[in-house]
Amino acid sequence: MQPTSSPLDQLADIHLPDGVSWWPLAPGWWILFALLVMAIIGFFIWRQRKQQNHYRIIAQHQLAGMYADYQQTQNAGAYLQALSLLLRRTALTAYPHSFNASIKGSDWLQWLDEVCPTLNEKFSSDLGQSLLSSAYQKNPQLDVSGLHQISSQWINMHRNYRQRIPASKRVKTTAEASNV
Description:
Oligomer: single chain
Number of helices: 7
Radius of gyration: 34 Å
Protein name: DUF4381 domain-containing protein
Keywords: Membrane, Transmembrane, Transmembrane helix
Transmembrane segments: 28-46
Shape: rod-shaped
InterPro entries: DUF4381 (IPR025489)
Strand content: under 5%
């Protein structure tokens, strides 16, 4: 008698499936890559804006130093001259191609108001007028803390050449300002 073969001997070996491939990626990986790309782009935009507005931080530090010097010396004339110089340097940095550094008087104060409409024309008021006339008086009587406050607000909130200015408050270009 022959030994009967078991039906299990007739079975073929188990075929293992191929390993899981990396490609195509699952949708979760695509979402993760998209979020990563958006985060990198957002970081570079944030860094660029921070660098573009770094001059404001420097101007604020200089303004604070000038105000501290004024509080020690009580020399309003020197403070007003330094403040006017600081505002002009900040304006030249904010508008390197269109600011006319030679504008003077009420045109200068009006320009400061135009590039910072949130101040509601405080530079054109009596407080701003003291910036023009009090620097040359022997004993000027003015509100230095108020002038310091609006100057600080102007440095923080003025619109630079990268930001849009409403058409009704368009800033004069160099050619337009030189004709005044």
